[in-house]
């Protein structure tokens, strides 16, 4: 009985993982292209800069500032072989107590947390790593990013 219950739980967990989608742009896209395609009337791109790190984690990429109805939202983007490694460092730095949700699979990962009054959502897949942070509107902006990148696939 315990064995069959265990198998059912494992099957449910595996099937739920297939429902979880982590969307990234095509590999052919540059950092700039991945950022610029996100600008819409509701999410106005106001600045893009190169960065060497996110907090104390080395990450050569770009940060973009999007103006939204909720206030500014910051999008940090990295593309390279170290995406998973950097994401794991960020996940570890966030601390178990402050993490609201985490998904860590061999081919993708996502976590969300609140730190110093800012909401943070970070995800990686393939060679891409994204971090969105802001005081408000972060979840809505993440949904927008997913929607845009999902439309690109079609």
From TrEMBL:
InterPro entries attached to this UniProt entry: DUF3242, TM1622-like_sf
Protein name per the record: Lipoprotein
